[in-house]
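Q: Now give one record:
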Amino acid sequence: MSPMGFAKRSASVLWLEPHRIRAGSHQRPLEGLPDEDQLAQALNALPQGPTFWILDDLLAPSALLRDIVEVPAGAEAQEAFFRWRFNQALALEGVFAVQSLPLDPGVWLLAGLPSETRDAWLALALRLGRPIHGLIPRWLWLYNRLAPSREKPGMLLSICPAGNGRYTGTLAAWGRTLTLLRQWSEPMDPEAWQNERVLPTTAFLHREGRGPQELWVWGASKWPESSLPAQMIQPDLPEVEAL
């Protein structure tokens, strides 16, 4: 997703989550969103040139819409339409910059970032000679690297530590394409995630004839056992990304 768009040149990666910011090989702890000085420090650790930002899922929330019968003509009308549908789907307050990506007829993936935050980040990065050439939620970055190589329907958990052994994050499921997307800001421990989120979603997908055959987990070191064994994604953070 490039600003804010779905992201062949190489760019330095900035990885941003509420508990950490990583720029190249440099990582610092955080407590929530970084301020301008913290961001500037991280950006200055990168070589000058384009940057690619991978954001925590709740910093750049997403929605999968399946009922888009008709899209207005014209860029401005489309932008306003998808911004309205995004806010409607997620019940968010404030003004968001929203990017839309068609997946199938009538099916669109939307992702957004608060406009004020986006504009401030774009201006800071440009001023420091590290212009942003891509912004993408973590779950989508993981999905793009994982799902196209899998032959079986699968499910991805993209989660982030929220303290006391609990996590927030995203559940994404796919068959031929992305079929389901759910996000939670309420932290839960892995057992609660499994029992209250993964298992009910798996049962729903089985009833729909789209049951996952693989479960991939990013963000935790271990996961509760179940009939669908979890495969833990190694937390290797890239230093560069192709644009």
